[in-house]
Write a structure and sequence with these properties.
With 130 residues, the chain is mainly beta. It is built from no helices and ten strands. The chain has one domain. It binds zinc ion. Zinc ion binds next to loops.
Amino acid sequence: MKRTYTCPACKGVLNPENAVILRATDEGRQMLLGLHPEPGNYELYIPDGSELPPGSQWRMGCPVCGTDLQLGANGQLCLVHMEVAGESKQVWFSPLAGQRVTFVVNTQGEVELFGNGEDIPEHLPFEFEL
Ligand SMILES: [Zn+2]
């Protein structure tokens, strides 16, 4: 199924091909990161020679306009927009390496959860702003 991911700030398309491209920055380091476009698939594409150690906290930004995507739950979740089958959705995900938590929210406010059972909080960590 074709999914188009866009930046919530500049509307730039983040997946020109398959992977969703984000800018990841850490203290003094930055790289482009590719995420699998299917929610719940946590395959990552990172540059040769780079590492994303489990538990490391990266800032995720839009590679087009530079906007920081860490918008929810006091910066504990990142937001990108997704168009799929003509429907607009919000995709929230954890920027903590190794934490597999993704929330997909449609315009009716219905939430789908993806990720590891033990990583998914019992209660949603924040109010969705739609
Ligand atoms: Zn942008």
